[in-house]
Write a structure and sequence with these properties.
globular, 2-enoyl-CoA Hydratase, Chain A, domain 1
Length: 207
């Protein structure tokens, strides 16, 4: 199989995982979905590793992630950069937003390696970096949010339903253009892998 096909299959697998995480988090899945989200919030699904002045991160963001992060920062105040390796999304968006604001409050930078793959809530977290950098080869995947019955694009532009996510993007990037891009880039049950031109257009890299 060609390298291109291998890459496409890898993106499909990772993107599918991100979508599953997103669907569970937004309660689109019923019955066992609720059991799954409760179960995933009872264990540590995020893994951290210290490397010099960087904090390496991988895994799903859940209700325990912020506390893990705070403990590590308290013990390692010299950390300057959060490096996301493989972060497919979040099963607790409230924690993800709180973590992201905390990263910005601390003045940390965010970085993606050539092998990094971030999707959905992992992308939101990446935006929190004061300086955001990435190596060629990194993957950034985005899609719309859903409330279980309608995708974001189905709400009027002035609907309060947009406000929490829109305001977060505006605070991180100084405007909300990227928010509107994400909700039209792919439906909640899909995934759009951003091109280099799109990454530059929306200023996801600034350092």
């Amino acid at each position: 199989m060609s390298d291109k096909n291998n890459i496409q299959r890898r993106h499909w697998f990772k993107g599918g995982l991100a979508v599953l995480v997103f669907l569970v988090a937004t309660k689109v899945l019923t019955g066992c979905g609720m059991v799954t989200i409760v179960a995933m919030n009872q264990i540590k699904t995020t893994h951290f590793e210290i490397q010099d002045n960087s904090l390496l991160m991988r895994g799903v963001i859940n209700s325990k992630t912020l506390a893990q992060f705070e403990d590590i920062i308290a013990e390692n105040p010299n950390i300057t950069t959060l490096v996301e390796l493989d972060v497919p999304g979040s099963v607790d968006d409230d924690t993800m937003i709180a973590l992201s604001y905390r990263v910005r409050e601390l003045g940390l930078n965010t970085h993606l390696t050539a092998n990094s793959e971030i999707y959905s809530g992992g992308v939101d977290l990446y935006l929190a970096g004061v300086k955001r950098s990435m190596e060629p080869g990194a993957t950034i995947g985005v899609h719309s949010w859903s409330d279980g019955s309608r995708d974001a694009k189905d709400y009027p532009r002035d609907s309060p339903a947009h406000e929490q996510n829109r305001l977060y993007i505006e605070r991180m990037l100084d405007d909300d253009a990227f928010y509107w891009f994400t909700i039209y880039a792919a439906p909640a049950d899909g995934m759009h892998v951003m091109t280099g031109a799109e990454i530059r257009k929306y200023k996801l890299v600034n350092g």
